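Repro:
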Amino acid sequence: MADRPTLLIMSFSPLVSDARVLRQIRLFEREYAVTTLGYGPSPEGVVEHLRLPDEAVSWHKDRRLLLLRRYEAAYRTSPVVAAATALLEGHTGRYDVVLADDIDTVPLALDLAPRGGVHADLHEYHPRQNEELRRWRLFVAPYFRWLVRTYGVRADSVTTVGQGIAAEYHRVFGLDCGVVMNAPHRRELEPTPVAWPPRLVHAGNGVATRLDVMLEAMGQVRNGATLDLYLIDQGDGYVPGLRERFATDPAVTIHDPVPTDQIVATLSAYDVGVYSLPPISFNFRWALPNKFFDFVQARLALMIGPSPEMASLVEEHDLGVVAQDFTPEAFAAAINALTPEGVAAAKAASDRAASVLCAEEQVHGWAEPVAALAERARATR
């Protein structure tokens, strides 16, 4: 289709392993001539890929400029922005629409002056991204507030990952954000029969703040439940330490991670997907992560801590159990209260919800605003 609208998708991430960006590319590749800018090799289905050099580290900033609150200079001189600017030389006015992933790419998107406009997809609440770290809170958070206040508000349309984050963007900056949850594509699976004692499972990054509650809870479990974890080693010694700690514990097994496209199939062999994420920061409190939806597509019962976004969906779709609080004692109590009938009912509920909590339904939140901007571009030709 030679007359397809032109769309640039920008993200300071390795695109072929960024699930959210890959969903955007898959969504638009047929009806749009898609160019991408990001790290790593070219994703399939695009007409052009502008590859950021690996050595241009995305988070590097001039600390002196941050301290002096010279935020425009800090942004423009950061290695990744300098590299992206070089790649985009001569591209001003070339695109009908630019889809800017995360706040870091929005200034560049606006620089390009696309004919239809800029859609910003904010993957988290950036001004409070690492607020648990005092130095970040003091020196980096003001920079991100400046980015949103100066550039984010100029995007023609905006989406983010959950209702709580959308509400905070509106409260603080007046941004009206649509919501596109991080749901994977729908999988055609059936719930597996419930085993007893129940088989619990978790897959994700090997990070203490995300795992300690669940691991400590297992020492208080009395119904024979087991927990298998498929963990990505962060290189800090934590995962090897877990392997040693639980080497002789029959209740906990530490596995190597599985490829992204095999996660749902791997999880489907279990009974209950578990996650308790203590709200040590704003983004942790309002988290609605990929793994939540992986559990649903795997047709598992869910057991989570009382994180508001996750708890709301568990309760709305009858997906399982929300623990009373974020303590190991509360999580263990919830595990001990499981019954075969309850787990089977929750797995059946996940089966029903899988057709709703999936990328095929969620991506309308991108398709409609981008189509509106493409139509604006067409009308100006």
